[in-house]
Amino acid sequence: MMTDDTTQLPTFDSLGLAPELLDAIRDAGYERPTPIQADAIPVALKGRDLIGLAQTGTGKTASFTLPILNRLMHGPRRTRALVLTPTRELCLQVEESVRKYSKYAPLDVIPVFGGVSYEPQEKALRSGVDIVVATPGRLIDQLDRRNVDFSYLEMLVLDEADRMLDMGFAPQLQRIVEQIPRYRQTMLFSATMPPEVEALGRKYLRRPVVVQVGRRSQAASTVTHAVYPVRKERKTDLLVDLLTKSHHDSVLVFTRTKHGADKVERELTRHGIPTAAMHADKSQPARIRALEDFRTGAIRVLVATDIAQRGLDIDGISHVINFDVPQAPEDYVHRIGRTGRAASTGDAYTFMSPDEIGMVRTIERVIGQEIPRISVPGFDFGTVAATAAAAAHGDAATAV
Ligand code: AMP
User: Fold this and answer.
1) Which of 119, 195, 240, 255 is most buried, most CB within 10 Å of its CB?
2) Nearest alpha carbon, ligand 1 atom 15
3) DSSP letters spanning 139-172
4) Domain ranges of the chain
5) CATH architecture of the domain with range 6-213
6) Which residues of 259-297 are buried (b: 16+ CB within 10 A; e: fewer)?
7) Quick check: 291 and 300 in contact, CB under 8 A?
8) How close is the Cα of 301 to the center of ligand 1, in Å?
9) Partners of 112 in the beta sheet?
10) Can 6-213 and 223-384 be said to share one CATH topology?
11) Residue 388 and residue 400: Cα distance in Å, rounded?
């Protein structure tokens, strides 16, 4: 029986937000608060400290920007809220959200991050802009230049606290928080809660309410996702490595180009892994034969371009491997939909070269979850680069 369980969910109207904000939310086209918003906003509006366990894509940004705007709409025009983010991208995203929701509220925001000139930031900071969204490094520079006055600050948000700590920002956070009045509302958001983040919470928050949401997953939930950081020229080797080291029943590999598909087919065949390629240049009989061989298990690996896979109906694929990161996030969801069907579990691996990092982030935003990274020693460009750098410094101990 179908039931309309959306009637059980809270509405934005029930959260206690000002009409100006509700209008902006309506303009944004949101129908209902996401779970983190429904849980966090009422707590934040009460002025309580808050720990939000949520990742990107859950709507976490609105769950702190809306309460900030709600509070700052009334009262003096001074810098009263600070949001700290690990990266410039996130800083800009938070700024954008503040602008979107403050459409009908007379509040201003300035993003402060490195790599751009100081002057415009300086001017806004000195004028006492209502909301500052900043990465820790540049904010410290501006503090050192005495451009920032936080003596009226009432609200502090540490966004993606786990990432800030991973990036080594703990000392900067400490220096910044020292400039902020003790009597304030502090909200900490983090995708994970390792002991270091817990310690941060104990240090900077007072009797916080913890709000936690599960992952919002649009891709088939039985699918295990993973991203393998790997240099472009090492992708084929990594594929061979994965396919030979553990058992894979039926693997669908996606490449961006026909040429790429042919190359992967050749290399796998050369390594004794029976493979067929499917793309627009293959004749119809060749395609039918490839599909038939794949179905019967004569070949375990099918390499295809996106074009070729449309309309393919193959059940029981155990692994999808994105040899190249799909250009459009929808293609990712679509490809992944090929595995994990009929409640059988499936794995979806994506090979990510340095120039594809941005595309993976976009996909993560769209599917509403961060995809775990798997670092394979000898392939991961991060560790390869670190090892090379260590070797260049003559640091034999780490250059393993
Ligand atoms: P975030 O997790 O804050 O990065 O938000 C992820 C995306 O969800 C953003 O593009 C928001 O604009 C959007 N979003 C936030 N709240 C809602 C909502 N209640 N309904 C629909 N979309 C939302």
Assistant:
1) 255
2) 59
3) HHHHHHTT----TT--EEEETTHHHHHHTT-HHH
4) 6-213, 223-384
5) 3-Layer(aba) Sandwich (3.40)
6) ebbbbbbebbeeeebebbbbbeebeeeebeebbebbeee
7) no
8) 38
9) 134
10) yes
11) 10
Are 36 and 63 spatial neighbours (Cβ–Cβ below 8 Å)? yes
Residue owning the nearest CA to atom 20 of ligand 1: 30
Among 12, 187, 23, residue whose Cα is nearest residue 105: 23
Burial 185-212 (b: 16+ CB within 10 A, else e): bbbbbbbebeeebeebbeebbeebbebe
Q: Give the pLDDT confidence of 243-280 residue by residue, as tens digits.
A: 887 777 789 999 999 999 999 999 999 998 989 998 88
User: Class of 223-384 per CATH?
Assistant: alpha beta
Sequence length of the chain is: 400
Q: For the segment 306-318, what is each residue's pLDDT rounded down to a tens digit?
A: 766 655 666 667 7
Q: For ligand 1, atom 13, which residue shows the shortest CA distance?
A: 59
